[in-house]
Specification:
The protein is an alpha/beta fold. The chain is 39% helix and 15% strand. The protein has 2 domains: 153 residues, Aspartate Aminotransferase, domain 1, CATH 3.90.1150.10; 254 residues, 3-Layer(aba) Sandwich (Aspartate Aminotransferase, domain 2), CATH 3.40.640. It is globular, with a radius of gyration of 22 Å. The structure holds 4'-deoxy-4'-aminopyridoxal-5'-phosphate.
């Protein structure tokens, strides 16, 4: 089933209407499940998003009618599978506005994309005494690979600090960047705080010092429009499963010139042009970085997810989710004993909070008994938790199918937590 938005509603400059959201909700079969006998209210979109019919259908169709390995066979199915796989790459290219489709490398997800860059670009270009700059609000997957690179090369990890609102302290950027800075790796949107970072400004400053920039777009790719050429970033990574697509598939965008100069990340089939015992020649982009049989169904599913996002419109999604965030923030900040972590001026639909009366896990369990799925924990951002002096938070993260009624139910659930624990 696909959704058709009439002409009038396709205007890019305004948020989705209640009726449109109701129609979009019908695209998500999982929204009909009833956890604990209650209608599902899914507020764990930052962990993984739910999947619309068109994604499920694309995967089903691939396995039922098109399944074959790609780039290898000359038979009918192999040609169809190869064309569907490469067509998905083109959809990603257009979605991110990359200059060339060979700049899109399919990975397992954001984590693998970062590891690919740190192992390939990093090991080739980073030496002892060089510096890598990340920020205090990074997900562990944008911290640990750089620490590993530093351990292996003798480079030094620098960290851009944040303030109590959960914003980067940009005044410190100039001091932390130096001619020794080789890589700057920054998240577009923080999964723990919701902060939208001014990445264009950071990219410009990093380039002035000759550093390359990797943007972690795990939390932005399905919430904000992204244009890699306008941003001017060197690398950008994201995960299909947070974009209404399948798990196990992700994207590394890299400028062709950089990807070309980088050694392969893994060796194996498909990433070579010829193999002899005395010398192997590597394949051209992007295949040089896609060793072995790829996640073909995943890429096709991601292509369908991108079509879904395009059919709704990224600007309209951004506007609608901003409305949801403002609505939820206004309610929660007025509940006594609820403290929101992450109050940046520029925020995406992530609401992290703690309560004086209850542990985040208890809050999560009570909300679960009401059918409300939130996340409780450190959100793989332990430095952020440490900075705010809390072991964990409860996090509600929004998607285009969430509604104000659901936020009212969340608020009622929080009042119930207070009733039980106070
Ligand atoms: N970066 C950020 C900001 C994230 O939110 C996540 C997932 N929570 C990741 C990286 C890692 O993504 P994945 O597990 O899909 O590789």
């Amino acid at each position: 089933m696909t959704i058709t938005l009439d002409r009038e509603t396709i205007k890019q400059d305004r948020a989705l209407t209640t009726e449109e959201v109701e129609r979009l909700r019908n695209e998500f079969p999982i929204l009909r499940t009833r956890p604990n006998g209650k209608p599902l209210i899914y507020f764990d979109n930052a962990a993984t998003s739910q999947k619309p019919y068109r994604v499920l259908c694309a995967i089903d169709k691939y396995y039922k009618n098109q399944n074959a390995n790609v780039h290898r066979g000359v038979h009918f199915l192999s040609e169809i599978a190869t064309s569907a796989y490469e067509c998905a790459r083109k959809k990603v290219q257009r979605f991110l506005n990359a200059n060339l489709s060979c700049e899109i490398v399919f990975t397992r997800g954001t984590t693998e994309g970062i590891n690919l860059v740190s192992n390939s670009y990093g090991r080739k270009n980073v030496k002892a005494g060089d510096e890598i700059l990340i920020s205090y609000m990074e997900h562990h997957s944008n911290i640990v690979p750089w620490q590993m690179l530093c351990e292996n090369t003798g480079a030094v990890l620098k960290v851009l600090p944040i303030n109590r609102e959960g914003e980067l302290i940009l005044d410190d950027l100039e001091n932390l960047l130096s001619p020794r800075t080789k890589i700057v790796a920054i998240t577009h949107v923080s999964n723990a705080l919701g902060t939208i970072n001014p990445i264009k400004r950071i990219i410009r400053a990093a380039h002035e010092r000759g550093a390359v920039v990797l943007i972690d777009a795990a939390q932005s790719a399905s919430h904000l429009p992204i244009d890699v050429q306008d941003l001017g970033c060197d690398f950008l990574v994201c995960s299909g499963h947070k974009m209404y697509g399948p798990t196990g598939i992700g994207v590394l965008y890299g400028r062709a010139e950089l990807l070309d100069s980088m050694p392969p990340y893994q060796g194996g089939g498909d990433m070579i042009l010829s193999v002899r015992f005395d010398k192997t020649t590597y394949n051209t982009l992007p295949h040089k970085f896609e060793a072995g049989t790829p996640h073909i169904a995943g890429a096709i599913g991601l292509g369908a997810a991108i079509e879904f996002l395009n059919s709704v419109g990224m600007k309209r999604i951004e506007a609608y989710e901003r409305q949801l965030l403002d609505y939820a923030t206004n309610i929660l900040k007025n509940i006594d004993g609820v403290h929101i972590i992450g109050t940046a001026r520029e925020k995406a639909g992530v609401l992290s909070f703690y309560m004086d009366c209850a542990h985040p896990h208890d809050i999560g369990q009570i909300l679960d008994s009401l059918g409300i799925a939130v996340r409780a924990g450190h959100h793989c951002a332990q430095p952020v938790m440490e900075f705010f002096g809390v072991p964990a938070t409860t996090r509600a993260s929004f998607a285009l199918f969430n509604t104000r009624d659901e936020i009212d139910a969340l608020a009622a659930g929080i009042l119930k937590v207070k009733e039980i624990f106070e």
